[in-house]
Amino acid sequence: MTFLKVNNLKVYYPVRGGFFRRVVENVKAVDGISFELNKGETYGLVGESGCGKSTTGRTLIGLNRATSGEINYKGKNLAAIKPKEFNQYRKEIQMIFQDPYSSLNPKKRVLDIIAEPLRNFYKLTAGEEMHKVQEVIEKVGLNSESIYKYPHEFSGGQRQRIGIARALTLNPQLIIADEPVSALDVSVQAQVINFMKDIQKEFNLTYLFISHDLGVIRHMCDRIGIMYKGQLVEEGNSQDIYDNPMHIYTKRLIAAIPEINPSDRLNKIKYRKEVSEEYNNHSNKFFTEEGKAYQLKPVSKTHLVALP
Ligand SMILES: Nc1ncnc2c1ncn2[C@@H]1O[C@H](COP(=O)(O)OP(=O)(O)OP(=O)(O)O)[C@@H](O)[C@H]1O
Ligand SMILES: [Mg+2]
């Protein structure tokens, strides 16, 4: 059984207008995406701002309601169950957010921030709770005194570790990480990413890793989905995506990555020119008349591209 299988998921936001606040149109934030996650892997979701990455993640943990489609998690369709029944899965599926400044309540001590999910699900004694909190705070590499402090007393990287500790308290299986390092310094980014990889091994976690940063995605992900306007235009492992991108949108993303290696710089400039020409002359062949992406089709065992 596939661990998580998303099938033709659509999430529309109603836009209301006029005197009666009627629904005048829908923002098609997610417009029919399908992908699978295997246990223990990291799947990266990449695409420009507003393409529907966060909406996808939020829908998987039940913060948004699916308009249609299926979210099969260990054989159960989460898109069709009642909100109350969803509670049981809240433990197993956790989210880490982009901004460690605003996602932690500034008025609460770290102890209370980390213990909150535990309090929602279990009736633990103060001693049991303390034990669990100490355990996760050590796992994320903060010292045990930290739990009596407030979020503002930590650096950005430390705050993100607190957010991760909070997500770990309930022994989750799937973590949706929505731009978890985008608000951090480059040097701190690497630390947090490596740390996320370590705990992934230790707890056998599956990640849906959302980012617009192709460098971070390459370092982190086993498989990658390229999202454009609510649809997937390409999916593959990092070799497929970085060495052999086939959809014009993916090519443009890859061409835009700065080349650090001086000896490859000229090649990159040439590639950028080719992609730009292809985009100017042939971009319409990659989209339908309504400007939508085609269905993903396999071009190899691992590589799928939305081509006519
Ligand atoms: N609550 C909402 N009501 C109406 N429209 C929304 C709402 N939330 C998001 N949208 C719209 O849905 C689309 C997808 O938004 P989403 O936040 O999923 O994008 P994203 O890929 O995460 O972008 P970013 O990289 O900027 O975080 C956008 O066009 C956005 O304006
Ligand atoms: Mg987002």
Task: Explain this structure.
- Keywords: ATP-binding, Nucleotide-binding, Transport.
- Belongs to the ABC transporter superfamily.
- The radius of gyration is 21 Å and the shape is globular.
- A hairpin with a 5-residue loop joins strand 11 and strand 12.
- The mean pLDDT is 92.
- It folds into two domains: 39-62 and 86-221, P-loop containing nucleotide triphosphate hydrolases (Rossmann fold); 229-308, no CATH class.
- The protein is 36% helix and 25% strand.
- It has ten helices and twelve strands.
- Helix 3 packs across helix 4, helix 3 (110-121) runs parallel beside helix 5 (156-168) and helix 9 runs antiparallel to helix 10.
- The longest helix is centred in the middle third of the chain and has 18 residues, at 186-203.
- By secondary structure, it is an alpha/beta fold.
- The chain has helices at 53-60, 83-90, 110-121, 126-139, 156-168, 186-203, 214-220, 238-243, 248-255, 265-282; strands at 4-17, 22-37, 42-46, 68-73, 76-77, 93-96, 174-178, 206-211, 223-228, 231-237, 296-298, 304-306.
- An eight-stranded mixed sheet has the order 6-7-8-3-9-10-12-11, sandwiched between helices.
- The structure holds adenosine-5'-triphosphate (ATP) and magnesium ion.
- Magnesium ion binds at residues 53-54, 178.
Key features of this structure:
308 residues; Rossmann fold; eight-stranded mixed β-sheet; four-stranded antiparallel β-sheet; globular; binds adenosine-5'-triphosphate; AAA+_ATPase; ATP binding; ABC_transp_ATP-bind
